[in-house]
Design a protein that fits this description.
- The structure is a single chain.
- The chain is an alpha+beta fold and 526 residues long.
- 14% of the residues lie in helices and 33% in strands.
- It is built from six helices and 28 strands.
- The protein has helices at residues 296-299, 347-364, 380-391, 425-431, 459-471, 491-510, and strands spanning 24-29, 36-42, 56-62, 74-79, 82-90, 93-100, 105-111, 122-128, 138-139, 141-143, 149-151, 159-164, 175-180, 186-191, 197-205, 210-216, 223-228, 233-236, 251-258, 264-271, 282-288, 291-293, 326-331, 334-336, 368-378, 397-401, 444-449, 476-481.
- The strands form seven sheets. The protein has an eight-stranded mixed sheet, sandwiched between helices.
- A hairpin with a 5-residue loop joins strand 19 and strand 20 (264-271).
């Protein structure tokens, strides 16, 4: 037995992106070798704020693990960015990915991990990991004879099979490619095309080649097929029925529009089955989740596909289209901070502008009644929801599930904010809707799992916001779901959540003129 490291308690790691423990870390076994250990060591002491030409180094240690000098570790690679992951193939090939959060940089390298004198690393990709339009994707992996995952390569081992989401201005069009390990040249073998959304699942034959894909469309539920790329044939493998039977589903339409500052935005619009333009504008439910970006170009890139089959899950807003609402699902809310500016420096302004653009587009199309719009979100989306109620008058009501509303209770950073409360107190104050509880006049439904164990979103957050709004005479209801964590799992909890949401929307959005007096007490699920 050989001890490879004995580390003290790691309680001094900076609470920022790309910070890691000093010294050796991330000990794991090579998946392509019977007994080779690998690990990473930081060249900057683990603090990304320190100037250092080498951020991380990757080391290998081969069996036998004796203490003699011939069993010394050998260095595989020095990385200018922070180590992200590694995929193994053989002594001739491994793929290393490194990243840097500050400018969202991403590098993918091909290296030879054998004991022979290492050849120079080959850069397979260098770019931004938030630039979805130029994302090469990730390597396919396959299980080897020992049950471990290794890279899927061409028969001559000169190429690696990659799969990517294939983001484009027309939506996601996933593809499969082969990347040459000698120079990074890419050859695209297959790509999804309208009117289907096809997602590659596995390479079944590297020689043919043949791949397993999941195919779906807006009307056709997902099933699996084998695509023979040499013969251009398609063979169906599964025949899963439509999970919703013959029930009519809301029709999906992808909207594209611009924010006041020119940033491109999008949203998925769902309308009730059988809706006709003559039915006029509808009460509307807007759902979103803000995302931070460093460039407006990346922030404006399309996500999703108009050809995906609608799959419902416990937290989806789409079911409300079945009871007469227009649903703006996944309305993009990019929070951009270019150059030295941090995204959250103008969080509220960008939030309000994005929401206004979504409502305006729906109203322009004649399907959204701008006087009857509700906003909802979960977790950071709940945080967004309450901020929109505090800083705008666009919404008749809000539904916030399992959120955090007082950022002084998360003083060492939150979401993608690296600055502490003491470094940017004004940002923490302005971004906390708790600070503006006296301004929240639209009815707010708060739902929270009583056993929420997600960092920062303790039930206390909803309890304190409820008290603050209630104390200022606002209309607010608090529902605590017993035994539920950050996401809700029990059938009883999910059905009760939907019942609460439906009652709230019917009362304050669909029929606001008949809304009763403000609620007078907090409520809990029986």
């Amino acid at each position: 037995m050989r001890e490879v490291v004995d580390k003290p308690l790691e309680d001094t790691i900076p609470n920022i992106h790309d910070a890691v423990p000093p010294g050796p870390r991330d000990y794991r076994w090579r998946s392509d070798s019977p007994a080779t250990l690998f690990w990473v060591e930081a060249g900057d002491g683990g603090d990304p704020r320190e100037e250092a030409p080498i951020r991380d180094s990757l080391f290998l240690l081969d069996a036998p693990f004796a203490t003699s000098s011939h069993a010394a570790p050998r260095k595989l690679a020095d990385l200018p960015l922070r180590f992200h992951n590694v995929s193994w193939s053989s002594d001739r090939l491994a793929v290393i990915e490194e990243r840097r959060w500050k400018d969202r940089k991403r590098i993918i390298l091909a290296v030879a991990p054998g004991k022979a004198a290492p050849a120079p690393a080959v850069t397979l990709f260098e770019g931004s990991f938030e630039d979805r339009y130029h994302d090469p994707g990730i390597p396919f992996e396959i299980m080897n004879s020992t049950g471990k995952q290794v890279l899927e390569t061409t028969p001559d081992s000169r190429g690696i099979f990659f799969q990517a989401q294939g983001a484009s201005p027309e939506g996601d069009q996933p593809f499969v490619s082969v990347v040459d390990v000698a120079d990074g040249a890419t050859k695209r073998l297959w790509q999804s095309a309208p009117p289907y959304f096809e997602l590659p699942s596995a390479v079944l034959s590297a020689a043919t080649p043949a791949i397993l894909i999941r195919r779906e469309s807006a009307e056709q539920s997902p099933n699996y097929y084998i695509k023979n790329l040499a013969q251009n044939t398609l063979a169906q493998v599964t025949s899963f029925p439509n999970p919703y039977g013959s029930a009519p589903l809301p029709k999906k339409r992808v909207l594209k529009y611009k924010r006041a500052d020119g940033v491109d935005l999008s949203a998925n619009l769902y309308l009730p089955p059988g809706y006709k333009p003559s039915d006029g504008p509808l009460p509307t439910l807007l759902e979103a989740y803000p995302v931070e970006y460093k460039t407006k170009a990346a922030a404006g890139q399309m996500t999703g596909s108009p050809y995906e089959f609608t799959i419902l899950y416990w937290g989806s807003p789409v079911p409300f289209a079945a009871v007469g609402y227009a649903v703006l699902q996944n309305a993009t809310i990019p929070i951009v901070g270019e150059g030295q500016t941090e995204p959250n420096d103008t969080y509220v302004d960008q939030l309000v502008s994005s929401a206004k653009a979504a409502i305006d587009e729906g109203a322009r199309l004649g399907v959204v009644d701008p006087k009857r719009v509700a906003v909802m979100g979960h977790s950071y989306g709940a945080f967004m929801t309450v901020n929109l109620l505090a800083h705008s008058d666009f919404f008749k009501a809000g539904i916030a599930r399992s959120g955090a509303y007082n950022r002084t209770l998360t003083p060492f950073g939150f979401q993608n904010e690296d600055r502490t409360y003491w470094q940017a107190p004004e940002v923490y104050y302005k971004m906390s809707p708790f600070s503006y509880a006296d301004k929240i006049k639209a009815p707010l439904l708060l739902i929270h799992g009583e056993a929420d164990n997600n960092t920062g979103t303790w039930p206390l957050q909803s309890e304190r916001l409820f008290s603050a709004i209630k104390g200022h005479g606002g209309t607010v209801r608090l529902v605590l779901l017993p035994l539920e964590a950050h996401g809700y799992a029990a059938r009883e909890s999910v059905l009760h959540m939907l019942w609460e949401m439906n009652n709230w929307l019917e009362t304050y959005v669909k029929n606001p003129q008949t809304a009763p007096a403000p609620a007078t007490a907090a409520a809990g699920q029986p």
